[in-house]
Specification:
single chain; 331 residues; 63% helix; 2 domains; 18 helices
């Protein structure tokens, strides 16, 4: 029989967790009943571990941090994520639709032909084109393909790209765009960024970086990871000059409160989303949701909550005003 293990993360009852938080970490807990409710509904990891990097100094909570504040902060964080997430899903669907349309137009609707390696540039940096195409083919060659690919495999004589692409990952769709040859890349880039203010190469670079940026942001939300400290790597950074060229001035302006424009953080993702939504209607809906949320929560939780949230996420502290100013711009 093996020796009993002295686990470094043993099971603790809710009351033991509460005492642990108060005694070891200095979290202010006056109402243990509320604290137990908070731990039950949000879990210890989400409520405590999710924010400890930004709420603690040398392993102790900053003075004045209460369990009630963490609870409100978590609710605010989730509410903000609920504005971002559906827009990313919308853009993913939009991008796949444009990608599949271009591929069908140029290479046909039969998966044997439009997934032929000769259609693609297999010298793309850091992408094994054949491996990528094989990965996509596995969606319909596996024994039980996902819907709607399965229906088309069993009921039709081909699987058009606009069906198959519903089942490929966002990452693989971005990589497929990356290995396209210049004519197809340019067509897609001009559709998503219909402007003459940028060169073709700048459009393509902006799309690749931005799509990967929001993909990683989406994954943070979907997998319940530390969203407030979201920061992509340097390969997904957006060019500041491109942001300044494309975005309305109120969204990109710099001042003493916001001296440097983020190019791979949450605000960069918001700027990319605003740009790629494309139509004035969708952009206004996005801004209205941000305005309504920031306005309502400032009344409900007081403005200091967003002040702390923006300091951690690197959002402009005057985000509400920026959104309002952008809404008032002439058509």
């Amino acid at each position: 029989m093996s020796e009993p293990c002295n686990y470094d993360k043993p099971f603790k009852t809710y009351q033991e967790q509460i005492h642990h938080l108060a005694d070891k970490y200095g979290l202010i807990i006056k109402d243990t009943g509320f604290a137990e409710h908070a731990l039950k509904t949000m879990s210890y990891y989400d409520l405590i571990n999710g924010y400890q990097d930004s709420m603690m100094i040398n392993g102790r909570y900053r003075p004045g941090i209460t369990i009630e504040f963490l609870y409100r902060f978590h609710l605010f964080d989730k509410g903000f994520q609920n504005i971002i997430f559906p827009r990313i899903m919308l853009i993913e669907n939009y991008f796949k639709s444009i990608l599949s349309h271009c591929i069908a137009e140029n290479f046909g609707v039969d998966e044997r032909f439009y997934l032929d390696r000769s259609n693609y540039n297999y010298a793309s940096r850091n992408i094994d084109c054949q491996h990528l195409l094989d990965d996509i083919k596995r969606i319909f060659t596996q024994q039980y393909p996902p819907m709607p690919t399965r229906f088309y495999k069993t009921s039709h004589n081909h699987i058009p790209p606009w069906i198959l692409f519903k089942n490929i990952s966002f990452g693989n769709s971005i990589n497929l765009f990356r290995v396209l040859r210049p004519p197809q890349k340019n067509t897609i880039a001009n559709t998503l960024l219909p402007t003459n203010a940028l060169r073709k190469s700048a459009k393509i670079a902006f799309l690749i970086s931005g799509l990967n940026l929001i993909r990683k942001c989406r994954n943070m939300i979907a997998h319940n990871l530390k969203f407030i400290t979201f920061h992509a790597n340097r390969f997904d950074a957006l060019q500041t000059t491109t942001l300044n060229t494309l975005l309305p001035p109120p969204l990109t302006k710099l001042d003493s409160q916001y001296p440097k424009l983020g190019n791979r953080d949450l605000y960069a993702a918001i700027l990319f989303i605003h740009q790629i939504l494309g139509t004035r209607f969708l952009r206004h809906l996005f801004l209205i949701d941000l305005i309504n949320y920031l306005s309502s929560t400032s009344d409900r939780y007081n403005t200091s909550l967003f002040t702390q949230y923006s300091a951690i996420t690197k959002l402009p502290p005057d985000l509400l005003r920026r959104c309002l100013q952008t809404m008032r711009l002439p058509r």
